[in-house]
Amino acid sequence: RLEEFLKKEVDLELSTLPDFEERVIDVSEVEQLMNSINTIPAPCAPVINPQAPNAATGTSLRVCWGLFSDDTVECYQLCYQPVSNERHSDGQAEHTLKVKETYCTITDLLPNTQYEFWVSALNASGISPPSERAVYVTAPSPPTIKNKKIRSCENAALVCWESRDINPVDSYTVEL
């Protein structure tokens, strides 16, 4: 039987044209809907914390911030510059750091100097508005004791020193 079947000439041509070959399906609305579902919004502005006690040395500052929302954040952009009394000073360069955590320790700063900090959050959709600006101050450099002015007697001592800082120092602690 197989031999007889193979000898026959078979006509494989269809008598009617299928409709689906000419039809174009528009999926643009579906694509837009899918894209809107997968898109995350740009984050809200972070909140920068005021300077914490013991968060400074003479050359470094630890800056912390947080978010009040459950935004998706990939990283933060921390900006800072020395505080200047002049409006526009070319010497006061703005520095920018990319940070993964909600804190950062900035080094190589000047002693007893005020720095202004602000932070923004970033994700795939964009960058948040910047936080409010916060002013942090590095610790003063140690004073220099004036050895030639030291005087002492049986019950007292006179020790004189001078500060090398430009900004005034609030107080000193003398340890014996």
UniProtKB/TrEMBL annotation:
Stated name of the protein: FSD2 protein
PROSITE patterns in the cross-refs: FN3
Top-level division of the source organism's lineage: Eukaryota
Domain Fibronectin type-III: 46-142
InterPro entries: E3_ligase_FN3/SPRY (IPR050617), FN3_dom (IPR003961), FN3_sf (IPR036116), Ig-like_fold (IPR013783)
